[in-house]
Amino acid sequence: xxxxxxxxxxxxxxxxxxxxxxxxxxxxxxxxxxxxxxxxxxxxxxxxxxxxxxxxxxxxxxxxxxxxxxxxxxxxxxxxxxxxxxxxxxxxxxxxxxxxxxxxxxxxxxxxxxxxxxxxxxxxxxxxxxxxxxxxxxxxxxxxxxxxxxxxxxxxxxxxxxxxxxxxxxxxxxxxxxxxxxxxxxxxxxxxxxxxxxxxxxxxxxxxxxxxxxxxxxxxxxxxxxxxxxxxxxxxxxxxxxxxxxxxxxxxxxxxxxxxxxxxxxxxxxxxxxxxxxxxxxxxxxxxxxxxxxxxxxxxxxxxxxxxxxxxxxxxxxxxxxxxxxxxxxxxxxxxxxxxxxxxxxxxxxxxxxxxxxxxxxxxxxxxxxxxxxxxxxxxxxxxxxxxxxxxxxxxxxxxxx
Length: 402
Prior knowledge:
Oligomer: single chain
Distance between the termini: 87 Å
Shape: elongated
Number of strands: 32
Number of helices: 2
Strand order of the largest sheet: 16-17-18-19-20-21-22-23
Low-confidence stretches: none
């Protein structure tokens, strides 16, 4: 028997009757009203002898309803959405997050589809969902699409990713530093003092289905999967566990859209990990701008400038690209590397091409740097000075700046 559905599709207060006749590669859809007027359309279907069809309607309130046609077979599934306008059934495209139309057909059983509302009387959104087994348990993907006049567009409020029942957030991904490390960073002096301090990274991979916290310290690294997440106002409490080790984090969120971990309180693991952390650019949860890591903060807030040498010559360090930032000096691009810097040098600027002169940068406060030619071994290891440093002062800074 051909499936049928009764719904008010055009919003005139009277129900139309929808019937569907499946066939190989197509579903013939017919809509009739009480007067006998009808509209026809051909919906996509798998190229199979046996096709099962399901019809459902998602309310648009006084504007009527959208019609979902699902055609399934053992070889694949197809879906399409339609709107009745006058005596015509018009296709409503489903836009994915990249702005492209979702494919009509996909693997059999890949998605389940349903209409869902975010509140009584509100228009229904179309939700597709799938679940698979990941390293941390059941990984659930939920994509919602809301009607936007001529198409169904992504609806972030109803969409989500979950791992083992825990929502995976879409937070800003950044290395988080202890308060002591941030004080060193902002002092612009002797960055080697950063090395003993632990760092924290909240790894929320919504594409692969993992959610964990990662601590790094000279004594060893530690990663714990997140097992629970509980909103607490503008903060979120996370519980994480691996074997007998467990941690509790309170993540204070900020930023324009409330997705930036501005301050994180960590407890439960003991020294050196139980500390308060923040991203480069933030201190005590306050910042105008935060950065993915300390190197990007240094490049943007300290190195990018015009510098004057003792002879009056000027050298401009320009910020290049998006994070991870590079520094352009004249026509050469340099990458920023603190791992190969050896005291008193704080940062190594290495030519991106791998050839040419590398420079060691020593910070002497907020407006003075020393630039030293260095030699960097091809196989890795610290870069060694190969000459005397040249002291540079920021253009516009006081002449007697430290």
